[in-house]
Design brief:
The complex is a heterodimer. Helix content of chain A is about 60%, strand content about 0%. By secondary structure, chain A is mostly helical. The chains are: A mainly alpha, B alpha+beta.
């Protein structure tokens, strides 16, 4: 006689409800289904909210919330541009080795490479601190996310926004307007609730308007082959992209200015 | 000039006098005039024209299917003339007031009695040295004058000759271009015309019924029983298989060059001329003017008949004038029928392609791009015909590209995403295009090749790229007193469903059966009441088809996300319902 199983056990044992995961599609890929992605998104979202310094958690949040159609959109932005296509085809990675930071320090003043290396030294960070993408299923979209992540420091350099939380939030808003990666928008909208009212006011009055205007009107930053323009004058690049430098955040903080 | 003239022996008598077909008599000849004018009689040729005792030298006809005038035309005609009976002459004398006995002596010279000037009673002609008008009208009056020697016009001529009831009608066909190349067409294996059509089973069975299909070169017909249609934006697709067809397992359509059909129709007409049912063909002859007739023929009231003045200087009078003369139909203008519709703002780019492998030749492919659908239709021997509907600007660009770059773009258009395709449109360098294509194509799953999109195109036949504007047109009516329109003259449509030629064939099938019925009943075939039945039967059928095609075109010529989402869900639903697919195929194949 067949043992009688409780209904729920029978359901969970049936093949139909066993999650069918697709095989790994690129090195380091962790295939996940919708349920798992939702769980990851909620978990990493809550953790990141209370501990915004956890870069790895923010990265996971970025991947778990990367809606495929928005990632495909960003990929298509790259595919519509000759340089963007070349980046997707060659798939370059930005590391301290590939960039040779020491050489960058000797670049002429105001060149992209020099400003970037100065910014790295000032903030005390390194390009090697970026986590690899794991949860985005499409290999090409995974690379787009990886590229965005690795270029993030260049965005800091070109806008001059520091890695303190206010600067990160302002830059996230700028990135969201420019790339439409959901995580950047979530960060820019939710993170200010943890700020002091004065800081929040500064963001809303000065940096968000700047971020939205510049992010939306600038050329897509994802299509910049940073490795190839390190010698370029940074102001020239800003003009080319249509970005104006925001007010210096550290100075405004010192002067406690929240209105311009 | 090729001419074969065989006289009609059928003597058709209808009950009513007014509907009696014109005496086809001696000038019931199929005349294929190549590079020249139709025979223009001079005054002294009046008799000659009937007997063909003189005439331009007859060249060799090397066409296999054309009846060869091996014996001289004189022989044929003297033979005929010898057979003129007293009965014939009595009938002639009735209309010409000639004494039959007197005529009997002159049998060799004349049939209609134009032997000597003094014996004639001529309306409006001077006595000497002028060709009698009466006989000219008699000769130039036809029961049916078809303007346009395209597939529709020729099919109508053939189907009239195929029916025992309408075969005695005196039929003329006027075509502006030369039909000689079509009549003599000898398919060469490496050259494929870029003007091809898909023949639905319904059209094929009609052509079989009238006996034309057996003249089609079968090695130049490619059938297919499988069709993939998909959305270029969302990738959602519908696949028709032979088991969706009705009856199950037959072919979905037959692809062939238009010239193969024209050739078959002309062969059929030659063959029919050999048995005495000929059609007078004026090719290389343009229609100069169509006017109401002002001259009179004794026992027939010509006043309502359209008279067609041709570029060779002669005029024909039509009991029924058929407009098979395409979109800008002069016949339609004469009849004052309004044609309504709109331009799609797209051009149809056609080309003859060679596939990389001679494989999967029973599949037709069509992908809807936001700029218009692109279709690859199988042709024999690993060739394929391309119909790429796109913006006029892109069509011009695609025509200007090098053959290699063009083939790469065709492959890209069936495989790559819209983003990639739009990027490739902006490239001009063949190597650049090829490198970009190979990179993106390499990312596609290998198993999709030949399953989700066609195999690669390897070559484009030189000089086969051409484009034409696409439009929707439908006439308010297909008929007017003594006028009927068929085919593109009555309606034109987008090529996305491959229905253009088939709608015309449907028109012809209906019109010829309506005319057949009229002849049997003794009605005047040019009477609008008779013709109304044709219009009433065809208009709704064509209107529905034109409407569906138009809506499909509009539905798919956008990449707006909500519409793409809706149409994709719709297509997926249809694709999962076999009975719906069977229903669609039933409509599209017409069986």
């Amino acid at each position: 006689m067949r043992p009688k199983l409780p209904l729920l056990t029978a359901v969970s044992l049936s093949r139909r409800y066993t999650p069918q995961l697709s095989p790994s599609r690129y090195p380091g890929h962790v295939p996940t289904n919708m349920f798992q992605k939702t769980l990851l998104a909620v978990g990493s979202g809550v953790t990141a909210f209370f501990n915004p310094r956890r870069g790895d958690i923010i990265a996971t949040l970025g991947e778990a919330t990367a809606l495929p159609f928005l990632m495909y959109r960003l990929r298509d932005v790259m595919l519509s541009d000759a340089t963007g296509r070349r980046i997707l085809r060659e798939k370059p990675r930005i590391t301290s080795k590939s960039l040779n930071i020491d050489a960058l320090r000797k670049y002429p003043a105001n060149s992209v490479g020099k400003v970037y290396s100065e910014w790295l030294d000032l903030e005390g960070v390194s390009p090697d601190t970026r986590a690899p993408v794991r949860y985005i299923d499409d290999p090409e979209c995974a690379y787009v996310m990886q590229r965005y992540r690795e270029c993030h420091d260049f965005y800091h350099a070109i806008t001059g926004l520091p890695i303190i939380i206010e600067g990160e939030i302002a830059l996230k808003m700028f990135e969201f307007a420019n790339t439409l990666i959901p995580m950047t928008g979530i960060g820019a909208l939710l993170a200010p609730s943890r700020l002091k009212p004065k800081q929040r006011e500064r963001l809303i009055n000065i940096y968000f308007p700047w971020a939205i205007k510049n992010g939306a009107t600038a050329k897509p930053l994802i299509n910049i082959y940073w490795e190839e323009i390190l010698m370029k004058d940074i102001q020239e690049l800003r003009d080319e992209l249509g970005i104006e430098k925001p007010p210096n955040l550290r100075e405004l903080r010192k002067l406690k200015i929240s209105h311009l | 000039m090729i001419r074969f003239a065989v006289t009609s022996r059928s003597c058709f008598r209808a009950a009513a006098k007014h509907c009696r077909p014109l005496r086809s008599g001696c000038y019931f000849s199929s005349t294929i005039c190549a590079g020249g004018k139709a025979p223009e009689p001079t005054e002294s040729e009046d008799i000659v024209r009937h007997t063909h005792s003189e005439g331009p030298p007859t060249p060799e006809i090397d066409h296999p299917n054309a009846p060869k005038p091996t014996e001289s035309e004189d022989a044929v005609h003297s033979d005929r003339n010898a057979e003129v009976t007293l009965d014939d002459l009595k009938r002639v004398s009735k209309t010409t007031d000639l004494d039959p006995t007197k005529l009997k002596d002159q049998t060799k010279a004349s049939y209609f009695g134009v032997a000597s000037n003094d014996s004639l009673h001529v309306a409006g002609g001077s006595k000497k040295g002028v060709r009698p008008l009466f006989s000219r009208i008699q000769n130039d009056a036809y029961d049916v004058v078809i303007v346009g020697g395209g597939v529709s016009g020729l099919t109508l001529a053939a189907s009239l000759k195929a029916s025992p009831h309408t075969s005695a009608l005196k039929v003329a066909l006027i075509e502006g271009m030369s039909l000689e190349s079509a009549a003599r067409w000898d398919p060469s294996p490496d050259q494929l015309s870029n003007r091809v059509s898909s023949i639905t089973p319904a059209s094929k069975s009609f052509l079989e019924k009238i006996g034309v299909w057996e003249h089609v070169y079968p090695e130049r017909v490619q059938e297919y029983d499988n069709m993939h249609v998909w959305d270029g934006v969302s990738g959602s697709r519908i696949q028709f298989d032979s088991f969706h067809l009705h009856p199950v397992g037959q072919s979905m359509a037959y692809m062939t060059e238009n010239i193969n059909l024209q050739h078959a129709l002309l062969s059929y007409l030659s063959e029919s001329a050999a048995t005495g049912n000929s059609v007078t063909i004026f090719d290389n002859t343009k229609v100069e003017e169509i006017t109401p007739t002002s001259v009179a023929l004794e026992d027939v009231d010509l006043s309502s008949w359209p008279s067609v003045r041709m570029s060779n200087g002669s005029t024909v009078y039509a009991r029924l004038l058929i407009g098979a003369d395409g979109v800008n139909s002069p016949v339609r203008s004469y009849a004052g029928i309004e044609s309504r519709g709109w331009d799609y703002g797209q051009h149809g780019l056609v080309a003859t392609l060679t596939m990389e492998w001679n494989d999967r030749q029973n599949v037709a492919w069509q992908r809807f791009l936001p700029t218009g659908p692109i279709a690859l239709l199988p042709m024999p021997d690993g060739k394929a015909s391309l119909v790429w509907s796109t913006t006029p600007k892109l069509a011009a660009h695609l025509k200007s590209l090098s053959p290699e770059a063009f083939c790469t773009l065709v492959n890209a258009a069936f495989r790559l995403d819209m983003t990639d395709l739009n990027y490739l449109y902006t490239r001009f360098n063949a190597e650049d295009i090829s490198a970009e294509f190979e990179w993106r194509d390499g990312l596609l799953p290998m198993e999709d090749e030949g399953a989700k999109f066609p195999l690669r195109v390897a070559e484009v036949q030189e000089g086969s790229r051409a484009s034409f504007p696409l439009r929707m047109r439908h006439c308010d009516s297909y008929v007017a007193p003594r006028v009927a329109l068929v085919g593109d003259a009555a309606h034109s449509t987008h090529p996305l469903a491959g229905q253009g030629l088939n709608l015309g064939q449907g028109d012809v099938a209906t019109l010829s059966s309506v005319l057949e019925k009229a002849v049997v009943r003794g009605a005047d075939i040019g009477d609008e009441v008779v013709l109304q039945e044709y219009w009433a039967e065809r208009y709704p059928v064509n209107h529905v088809m034109l409407g569906v095609i138009d809506k499909l075109q509009k539905l798919y010529c956008t990449d707006a996300a909500p519409i793409v989402a809706l149409r994709s869900v719709g297509l997926d639903v249809v694709n999962s319902l076999d009975w719906v697919k069977t229903m669609i195929m039933k409509q599209a194949t017409g069986v």
